[in-house]
Amino acid sequence: MSKLVWDQTGERFYETGVKQGVLYLQGTGGTYPKGVAWNGLTAVTESPSGAEATPIYADDIKYLNLVSAEEFGATIEAYTYPDEFAQCDGSAEIAAGVMIGQQSRKIFGLSYKTTLGNDTDGNDYGYKLHIIYGALAAPSEKGYATINDSPEAITFSWEVTTTPVSVTGFKPTASITIDSTKVDDTKLAALEAILYGGTETEARLPLPDEIAALVAG
């Protein structure tokens, strides 16, 4: 046994940034067969909700807590978005370059990276790979303003709700996080080859069971 020590060299960790966003439209059978790069991604705010306790009283005491189901939501912010995301934002093309709104919204998946750092390696320590399944974007506000002496690019923002997908041996989930500092480099490279595609394969989003088999195997 040893005494606890705080803030040792190399153990002052932090997480920052968001990059390498990829959009995956949901296909038949709940799969995500093709991914496209999301340029201009500025923020993803994960917002879990639920898991609220409802106290039950009996025998003049607090008998137990009943906990509500937990849900995963998020807010996506970006300066721009892939053309394919228009289907997820309730738009449809009726002619080349002509878009209409108030259409059905397509379910999508999303992956992105955040940077892991520490006091010795800085931002080169590692990264986390985040994956979201079953996402549905709500209608969002778009504010347009005149160009002036303090120009700003328009920032788009979408509130996202999710529907979980099944995971063998666990409750369904809508999110996965993979830590590059704890996963074998070869297995992580194999997973990223699936997520980002290659010269002979399309980028696609594997479901949780496939990810678990790849990383565990």
Number of strands: 16
Rg computed from alpha carbons, rounded to a whole number of angstroms: 21 Å
Mean pLDDT: 92
Q: Provide the low-confidence segments as ranges.
A: none
The fraction of residues in strands falls at over 45%
Shape, per Cα inertia axes = globular
Q: Whole-Å distance between the termini?
A: 34 Å
User: What portion of residues is helical?
Assistant: under 10%
Order of helices and strands: EEEEEEEEEEEEEEEEHH
The largest pleated sheet is described as: 8 strands, antiparallel
What is the structural class?
A: mainly beta
Total helices: the number is: 2
Protein described:
- With 217 residues, this protein is mainly beta.
- A hairpin with a 2-residue loop joins strand 14 (165-167) and strand 15 (170-173).
- The protein is globular.
- The chain has 2 helices and 16 strands.
- Strands 1, 2, 3, 8, 11, 12, 13 and 16 form an 8-stranded antiparallel sheet that branches. It has a two-stranded antiparallel ribbon with strand order 4-7. It has a two-stranded antiparallel sheet with strand order 5-6.
